[in-house]
Amino acid sequence: MIPLSETLSQGRELVVEIERRSGQKVADCYQCGTCSSTCAAADAFDYPPHVFMRLLQLGVVDRALTSTTGQLCYDCMTCSSRCPISIDVADVIETTKNIADEQGIRESERGLRLFRNLFLKNVRRHGRLHEASLLAWFNLKSGKLTNDMSLVPLILHRKKVRIIQPRIKNRAQVRRIFQRAKERPKW
Ligand code: SF4
Ligand code: SF4
Known about the structure:
By secondary structure, this protein is mostly helical.
């Protein structure tokens, strides 16, 4: 439940900015919920995509800016492709997330973004996830070199993570998938 008192005009300026940058009109969303029902990550968000849109419609931008939706959304664009009125929901979320970053909001959650970027780079490079190098890079880039290191002997003992991992046959194909996703036009 969102208290009506939160729907103040102070958020309106930011909503206009989000609309300008994304080229989307959040007021057009009629809350059908299709975006949320097709989003594989919606359960992990504090606000699923259609609720995220509703927050912006109401001008409750501070909740959108601090939500985990922007951090955990992995830009698969399924929501955008399924929206019956072609709202690019993913772009609205991404734009809001960028504004939050510019404003220095969610400092404590930067690790999520770092992890996501390193995860995608790792899959692109190895053709599939190479967990050992992901953990190493994450610790290095986050400046927390000893993070979770006490678990390493146990993880190795139980063979949960391999230091040397067999290569997949066609890594170039995976790279082409990444390239095509990058070149894909927005809806
Ligand atoms: S699918 Fe489109 S119209 Fe429906 S709730 Fe999501 S953004 Fe709004
Ligand atoms: S782009 Fe983000 S919000 Fe949209 S379906 Fe994918 S993970 Fe969900």
